[in-house]
Amino acid sequence: MVWLQQEPVVSLWFAGLQLGGSAITEGFKLLIDRSRPLHQLVLDHGASFPSGHTFCTALLVFTLWTLCLPHIQDQETQLITVLIGIGWIAMVAISRVYLRDHYLSDVLASVCLASGWWLLVTPAEAFIQAKMRQFLPEGMLKSWPHQN
Fold it and tell me: Cα separation of 102 and 105, whole Å?
């Protein structure tokens, strides 16, 4: 959606946030190598800490808030949007614990890690996007209606 309506740099920025964050969770999984809980309802392999599902869901919700909230004028609707996002993250986190794929500490750490990642990289957003524009082919940037 952003690729078509905004510009490729913004799309690549959000994709990079997600991919970079996923790499961080995989790094922590390799570093900590915590075993998953016993008696999983749905068999899952790999390390338990942190929860990649919870981490990526949190980043997705943060991204959707960034894209949607500035366009919502009504404060009540903004609040509802934020609460839906929090509920979405909570449902994913709870489901990971319920399915016995993660411990509660895994999903709580994932939300904290996603929040930290977001707060660490988003202040550099304008700088990174400017650098990305330097490296993208000129024809790609000019093909977007709002940039002509």
Answer: 8
Give residue 95's domain range.
2-147
Residue type at 84 in one-letter notation: I
The predicted structure's pLDDT at residue 6: 52
Q: How many domains does the chain have?
A: 1
Q: Is 98 within 8 Å of 106 (Cβ atoms)?
A: no
Burial of 14 from C-beta contacts in 10 A (0-12 / 13-18 / 19+): buried
* Residue 57: pLDDT band with limits 50, 70, 90: very high
Residue 147 pLDDT exceeds 70? no
Whose tokens are 């999983």? That residue is: 40
User: What b-and-e string marks burial along 58-87, b requiring 16 or more CB atoms within 10 Å of the CB?
Assistant: bbbbbbebeeeeeeeeeeeebeebeeebee
pTM above 0.85, yes or no: no
Helices 52-68 and 104-121 pack at an angle, to 10 degrees, of: 40
Q: How far apart are the C-alpha atoms of 51 and 102, rounded to whole Å?
A: 7
Alpha carbon distances (Å) from 107 to 9, 51, 138: 31, 5, 42
Residue 134 has pLDDT above 50, yes or no: yes
